[in-house]
Amino acid sequence: MVSDLKIEIENDxxxxxxxxxxxxxxxxxxxxxxxxxxxxxxxxxxxxxxxRVRADGGxxxxxxxxLQGETTGHGRISxxxxxxxRDARMREGGRDLTFSEDLAAxxxxxxxxxxxxxxxxxxxxxxxxKGIAHLAAHFHTMTASVIVSGHCxxxxxxxxxxxxxxxxxxxxxxxxxxxxxQDGLQAVEKNLLADVSGPTEPDTVYLQWSLLLxxxxxxxDMVSLCRSEGKRVDAWTFxxxxxxxxxxxxxxxxxxxxxxxxxxxxxxxxxxxxxxAWSKRIxx
Length: 284
Hints:
The protein has a single domain, classed as TIM Barrel, CATH 3.20.20. It is built from 11 helices and 10 strands. The chain has helices spanning 34-43, 82-85, 100-106, 124-139, 153-162, 173-183, 185-196, 209-217, 222-228, 249-260, 271-283, and strands at residues 8-11, 14-20, 46-53, 59-61, 115-120, 146-150, 167-170, 204-208, 232-236, 265-268. Strands 1-2-10-9-8-7-6-5-3-4 form a 10-stranded mixed sheet.
């Protein structure tokens, strides 16, 4: 029987971490739960959260650029200071918001295998030198516990220059999907290779799982390309529709094909259920 705390599965001797999307082990967990994050940090889990820049250069753990979707507040987050945001609450359970200052304190006691992804939802123009300085001030002692990722390559380069000890990730999915439609697979290969060997010097490349499968069917193994350049690959975000029942036949076809590509990590909202479903299918 697979433990409810399982955070890794294996295919043909290749281990694949199951990353907790938006700090959820399961979809029923509250969005960006600090309780789940503490558990994951203690267990050595890989987890992801989203960061939005505040007006004072600090950050808050939220996905949307406006407060009203996820919180009781209103207005653009980039126009709010820390003090102005303290009155807002998460809509799920009335919880306090989590700020970058809180993350820095919580990470001090992380398991050595724990990895917390800071998915930056703003670009460098919005974050600016003030935001980068804030990260440097609060996370200068972090080592392998944090990976800073984003779609804006200029932002990741700025992180590299100011915090070279932090791991970095890039997500060229949207750009590559557009190139795929307009210019074809050869152009995708050229652009992906340029990104992974470019000035961001990423540790991990984040790519949508369906894009990986479609490219593989058409003849380009994007996972293999990234790994040949010494980069890890995270396939996002595969979540079971029925966590209790496990994989449907279509889900199993896609997930087993994804596992065959041997990514280093798969992002999911249902990590324990995915591990159980995988073990059940493999066992026959």
